[in-house]
Amino acid sequence: MRLREHLRYVSQAVQIKLRVLFCRCYRLRIFELRFAPPASLWAVLLICCPSFAQQSPPTQDTTPQASHAAAQETVPAEVAAAEAAIGNSDWPAAEAKLDPWLVSHPNDARALFDAGYVADAQNRLDDAATLYRRAVAANPKSFEAHLSLGLLLARQQKPDEARPELVTATTLDPGDADPALKARAWRALARIDRDANPTEASNDLLEALKLSSETPQDTLLAAELAEKAGQWSAAAGAYRRVLAKDPKSLPANAGLGHVLILEKQYPEAETVLRAALEQAPDDPALTAQLATALVAQDKAEALPMVQKLHADHPADAAITRMLAAVLADAGDYAGSDQLDLHLLAASPDDAELLVAHGQNLVHEGLLAQAYGVFDKATKAGPASADAWSGLAFTASRTNRPDVTLHALTMRSQHAEENASTLFLWATAYDSLHQKDQAVAYYRRFLAAAEGKYPDQQWQARQRLQVLGK
User: What CATH number did the domain enclosing 89 receive?
Assistant: First the structure.
């Protein structure tokens, strides 16, 4: 069914939803809730990072506390007063001490860091970044300055700038600061690396777990990394561990539902997603996933569900594409094609949309138009077996046997032959009066048909009799 060919668009929508949720985890305070790290999380991570197979999970639970790495230094009275104000979250009082001090001591790394911290706390992020950079320049070995700058840049969605700061922080001695503060740098690196290099992200997360206990966000990230490695069972296990502690966790429910759909465990996915939607009835990602599970089980309630979802989110291309596929499966080819054409207006060279449009035209009997659409689809997506299949079929039906043979030759580079393509090979060679090739393919078709194509089987037997004479 055409919808099943497009399920990955739903998973893309879910992944986008999850990324939005995960981005909140850059803030330091999110990592302060902890629970004991089970060995199973290490097993999940080792799937993506087997080089850690000889290492043991951490057993000590430490809670990071902010402090300066160089606690032994003599602190000027003005800076000490500012830090006392910071301890009371009295930002104006802290600034009143730090600003004049920095005028006369512009390279005081500790004061620069404190000023950056005050700006950061007041959400003056650009000012904070400037001050943290000055602190790094004044003391390149300042663990806190590199760490805070890296975390701030990560929150600002500047991963290329954040990464080197965080990497540097992981190499520096935190001094009298809690060593577990390094875990924050490793966790932020893991989230930066997860898309471009999942193996490195697993490495980063494992380093964090050596220094501090597992957090729910760690487990979610480990599940996501297992998904990227194609380890569905490991990913599902990680999501279930989060749900055991927090049954209402939206990213865990969405992630587990996604994995179950990938494993084609549609009834269980339906159960998980229905329970999740009781907690978040208007969540579009969960609704889209539930609709996917329902369609895969041919349940009638899928169509009205997707129609409502589309009505609520008319600008969401993934949902529009999904509705178009459901309508096509329901036999409403004209309605499906209207949606496909709307999407093609924004993405005219999308090969899969062109294939969907061409399939609708075929069902509507518009073969000449469909031929042109499939021809364009093969140019937009030369590796698309569906595009070449459509071109071969429409070329055959519009008396272009030479194009049919070319399309079938190209398709064979990307997909195996089946009964339908074998019949197209046979009829194309037959039309071109290439007797030996036609006979060979008619026989291959009959061997593969297994009674599923009675009309074509009758035609093949008749042609073999004629060609045999």
Answer: 1.25.40.10
